[in-house]
């Protein structure tokens, strides 16, 4: 029987619950070793925690280096689980207890020793900063629209800020590209992705960083991580429309929306798949979501194999 440990991760501390007692440790190697010390057999332990961005990276790396099994619970899943328990209060201590109780919903295939790619995390952080710069630029452009043309001083100031932020964003993205392509194996994967009709340089870089970050994921997990796993709503005679979960991967989905539309017209595999769905009376919005899922899985396969895209020779089967 597994020894489950619920861990709520914050910036400086870890709230820990082992089913009997609550603890608070520092969010560093000393704190991680303190958790290990309360477990009788670390090889039988399973740490349950949420991915809290940079705050949980060190814990994930510690578990990877020490072969400690984990279950990483998406924040929305954890929040919904707390609601199902009718828990109204929210503290770090309570959150750790809720994560501990989540063990009843854990399937064996959910328990894994994490893989930690420090370079991929660094690139993801750079990509996040790049996106923040673009968002800041967009906010300034929206602000500019509300300023009269007569206010030349303010318009000049904002335009200068926009130009500066765009220069910073472009410089950062070039640095990301340089770091990626300096590695020969990554460059090979990058070039393979570019052979996919509708996938350009920016999309290929985003996909590579995403796949590197979740290097241990399989195709089904990749689909869920990008929020394209199907969700069904049925009750009695009622049958709702199938939707995608949208749990995570928002930026990647947004980036790939236009390439997916392009793929439904110019990528023979995606076009055949999309056309079949539409001809079977599937709503176009649903068909586009399914086409995006197919495009990402196609990219995932090519990323792993490092083989160039091959045009469709026979009727594409789902």
How would you characterize the overall build of this protein?
The protein is an alpha/beta fold. The protein folds into three domains: 3-110, 2-Layer Sandwich (Nucleotidyltransferase, domain 5); 118-181; 201-305, no CATH class. Helices cover 57% and strands 11% of the residues. The strands form three sheets. A five-stranded mixed beta sheet has the order 3-2-1-4-5. Helix 2 (54-65) links the parallel strand 4 and strand 5 (69-72). The longest helix has 30 residues, at 152-181. The model is unreliable at 314-318 (pLDDT under 50).
Short description:
The chain has helices at 29-37, 54-65, 75-84, 92-101, 118-145, 152-181, 184-193, 201-213, 219-225, 250-266, 268-279, 284-305, and strands spanning 3-9, 13-17, 22-26, 45-49, 69-72, 230-231, 234-235, 238-239, 243-244. The protein is an alpha/beta fold and 318 residues long. The longest helix has 30 residues, at 152-181.
List the helices and strands and how they pair.
Blueprint: E1 3-9, E2 13-17, E3 22-26, H1 29-37, E4 45-49, H2 54-65, E5 69-72, H3 75-84, H4 92-101, H5 118-145, H6 152-181, H7 184-193, H8 201-213, H9 219-225, E6 230-231, E7 234-235, E8 238-239, E9 243-244, H10 250-266, H11 268-279, H12 284-305
Parallel strand pairs: 1-4, 4-5
Antiparallel strand pairs: 1-2, 2-3, 6-9, 7-8
Helix pairs in contact: 5-6, 5-8, 7-8, 7-12, 8-10, 10-11, 10-12, 11-12
């Amino acid at each position: 029987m597994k020894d489950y440990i619920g861990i709520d991760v914050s910036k400086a501390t870890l709230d820990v619950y082992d089913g009997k007692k609550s603890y608070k440790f520092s969010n560093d190697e000393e704190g991680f070793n303190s958790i290990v010390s309360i477990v009788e057999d670390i090889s039988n332990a399973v740490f349950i925690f949420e991915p809290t961005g940079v705050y949980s990276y060190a814990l994930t790396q510690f578990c990877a280096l020490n072969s400690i099994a984990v279950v990483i619970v998406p924040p929305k899943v954890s929040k919904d689980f707390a609601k199902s328990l009718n828990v109204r209060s929210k503290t770090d201590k309570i959150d750790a207890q809720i994560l501990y109780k989540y063990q009843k919903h854990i399937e064996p295939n959910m328990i894994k020793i994490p893989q930690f790619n420090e370079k991929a995390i660094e690139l993801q952080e750079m990509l996040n900063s790049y996106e923040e710069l673009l968002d800041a630029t967009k906010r300034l452009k929206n602000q500019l629209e509300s300023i009269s043309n007569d206010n030349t001083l303010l318009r000049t100031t904002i335009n200068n800020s926009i130009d500066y932020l765009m220069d910073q964003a472009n410089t950062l993205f070039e640095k990301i590209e340089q770091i990626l392509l300096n590695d020969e194996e990554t460059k090979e994967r990058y070039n393979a992705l570019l052979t996919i009709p509708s996938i350009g340089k920016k999309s290929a870089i985003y996909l590579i960083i995403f796949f590197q970050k979740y290097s241990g994921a399989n195709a089904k997990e990749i689909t869920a991580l990008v929020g394209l796993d199907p969700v069904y709503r049925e009750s009695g005679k009622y049958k709702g429309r199938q939707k995608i979960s949208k749990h995570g991967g928002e930026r990647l989905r947004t980036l790939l929306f236009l390439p997916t539309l392009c793929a439904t017209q110019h990528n023979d595999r995606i076009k055949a798949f999309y056309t079949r769905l539409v001809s079977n009376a599937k709503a176009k919005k649903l068909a586009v979501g399914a086409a995006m899922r197919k495009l990402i899985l196609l990219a995932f396969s090519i990323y792993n194999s490092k083989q160039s895209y091959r045009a469709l020779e026979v009727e594409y089967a789902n």
